[in-house]
Specification:
single chain, mainly alpha
């Protein structure tokens, strides 16, 4: 019996990790810009006086990633998904999240 005959190609777990990471990056970038727009959000994200709102922005991004990744992992484990679509969407989310962390971009939204 050929052991390779039982092998099924799946990419759901990898897709879950990639998309969850991209959502975390986009969350961090979005919070960076939203904190410039909303003084109350900036204050709420200042979990540490020494660091200011940066700790909250990155902290929420990591928390979102930690929540989303196991959900996608459970949904897509053992499945073959359209990885190219997920990868493209992830690249877009990462690019937008990264862009939203640049001062010329988020300062354009400040009041």
């Amino acid at each position: 019996m050929n052991a390779r005959a039982d092998f099924t190609k799946t990419d759901g777990v990898a897709a879950a990790a990639v998309l969850a990471s991209a959502i975390g990056v986009f969350t961090t970038g979005s919070l960076t810009t939203l904190a410039e727009i909303s003084e109350s959000l900036k204050t709420a994200l200042a979990w540490s006086g020494a660091v200011g709102p940066l700790i909250g922005k990155t902290g929420v991004g990591v928390i979102v990633w930690l929540i989303v990744w196991p959900i996608f992992h459970a949904l897509w484990r053992g499945k073959e998904v359209n990885f190219s679509v997920i990868y493209t969407a992830s690249l877009i989310l990462i690019a937008l999240g990264w862009l939203l962390t640049f001062p010329p971009v988020f300062e354009a939204f400040s009041g």
